[in-house]
Amino acid sequence: MAFDSETAERVRAALADRQVREVKMFGGLAFMVDERMVVCVSAGGSDLLVRVSPDSDAQHLEKSGAARAEMGKGRSMGEGWITVDKTALVEEKDFTDWMTAALSFHAQGSGGKPATRSKTETK
Fold it and tell me: Looking at residue 76, which CATH number applies to its domain?
């Protein structure tokens, strides 16, 4: 099933001032900034997977259309991974609020690949 192109275009517009790499991931289209996922437009266009700070996770889950993201049958992706129903993104303000939350977490430098350690030689 293809991702929702309208939602993908909205994400592209919101990230227009950044270098973005688009990757097919989680059954949809993920938007990577600095090699870290910011959001993912899900297949079927039913929702947007948003990565937010685990510290503000509970606050975001109280918003309309928000739910804990799951991978597979009822397996939670954990704090900071939120699925937002497309119907909760109709208003530009709501969409912008979710993008702001994702970019705010991204700016913290969290949620990326662990840093690789360089091996030092002992003489």
Answer: 3.30.1460.30
pLDDT the model gives residue 70: 84
> Nearest to residue 8, comparing CAs of 93, 76, 99?
99
Strand partners, 30: 23, 40
Tokens, residue 22: 């688009």
Number of structural domains (the chain) is: 1
- Write the pLDDT tens digit of every residue in 34-43: 999 999 998 7
Max intra-chain CA distance, the chain: 62
d(Cα 114, Cα 4) in Å, to the nearest integer?
A: 31
Output DSSP code: residue 70: B
How far apart CA 40 and CA 32 sit, in angstroms, is 9
Question: Beta-carbon neighbour count of residue 33 at 10 Å?
Answer: 18
Q: Strand, helix or coil at 118?
A: coil
Query: How many helices and strands, by DSSP H and E, does the chain display?
Result: 3, 6
